[in-house]
Amino acid sequence: MKVAAILLLCMTLFHQGHSNSCQGRCGLGIDTSYSCQCNTACERYNDCCSDYYTLCQADVAAITDAEIKSLSETLYVLDRNKASASQLTLDTQALVADSQTGSQSDLSSRPLYKYVDESTLFSRPTYAALVNVLDNYKRITGQAESFTSQQLTEQETFLKETMLNTELGRELFAFLYTKGVYKSEAEFIEDLKNMWFGLYSRLNGAMDSSGFEHIFAGEIKGGKVSGFHNWIQFYLLEKRGELNYYSHSFDGPWSDYPDVLGLQFHWDGYYKQVGSAVIGSSPEFDFALYSLCYIARPGKYCYLSLGGKELIIQTYTWENSFYGDGKKYIGSAYPVSM
After folding, report:
1. Is 239 a residue of the active site?
2. Residue 77's closest CA among 274, 308, 329?
3. Strand partners, 333
4. At what angle do helices 283-296 and 185-197 cross, to 10 degrees?
5. How far is CA 3 from CA 7, 95, 117, in A?
């Protein structure tokens, strides 16, 4: 009994001595027996130990605005799968003021996409991978998503083709690796998979949404279009007669692709007041830019540079559920069109 009492006393004293420190505790789950925590969730709950940033994040270097702009210029140059002027022709027609975007007036008599060279663009692996994933979702929030084994494989293929099999994707990983964000390609891909494709609930507790669905495929919530920031999805739906282009309220300063438009449209009974999208870019370019901005500037403006011209990406974190040790899913990301 005396030995047991002594051991218990030693353990108690050790625990007390480390209860306010992250020494040996970095990345461990929440333990309420400690007065402070040492995982990414502590930033959300404001209960990190005083040495959390010194001990647990010492390997993750700060990403500066200048580095983000420099990397975005590199990714811009590496987007060799983007559409050329001969492969994509737009008919933008009506330009409206910001004050008119809510009028729901159909001011354009023709489709936005006049010509898309599908045989060339959509035969490329990253485009084909994106198209395969886009039709895997129920657009109405409140309806739980479920995926077949084939559809889960399509998600994996999209990640592999865009991030591992392109120079652009590998450049993004190399940058994040040098900054200590990821220690391996496997960790990089696994985190992107959870961040983008992990399900959460936007309505009534149903696992009905993900960052990928919201941003790339688009959703319907509260009687209107929510998200929907991808030019390829727009084109495919317009081609099938399910989407009616009304007008645009913003046209970026770029004279070739990629460009940025702020769009007004009707999607099979539901209106989008301003749906901004990068136009003519490859799937890997969009995915890389949004991922970079979400990782480096979650919930904030992210200032990029494309061909010497500024592009701002706004990201939002999903605050109501988490993955891993308290990491946040992507809520939304889109080009600022103003």
Report:
1. no
2. 308
3. 315
4. 90
5. 6, 83, 80
What pLDDT, on the 0 to 100 scale, is given for residue 126? 98
Q: Alpha helix (H) ranges present in 94-214?
A: 118-121, 125-134, 149-159, 167-178, 185-197, 211-212
Cα 219 from Cα 197, distance rounded (Å): 14
Residue with tokens 């083709």: 161
Catalytic residue among 82, 229, 248, 328: 229
Active site residue 214: yes
Whether the model clears a pTM of 0.70, i.e. scores above it, the answer is: yes
Catalytic residue (choose from 214, 221, 248, 328):
214
Nearest alpha-carbon partner for 52 in 37, 35, 30, 63: 37
Catalytic residue from among 82, 221, 248, 272: 272
CA dihedral 229, 322, 192, 128 (to 10 degrees): -50
* Helix, strand, coil content of the chain in percent (nearest 5): 40, 25, 35
Contact 257, 85 (CB under 8 A): yes
**Could you report the per-residue pLDDT of 190-242, keeping only the tens digit for each?**
999 999 999 999 999 999 999 999 999 999 999 999 999 999 999 999 999 99
CB 163 within 8 A of CB 169: yes
Distance, CA of 209 to CA of 331 (rounded, Å): 9
Q: Is 18 a catalytic residue?
A: no
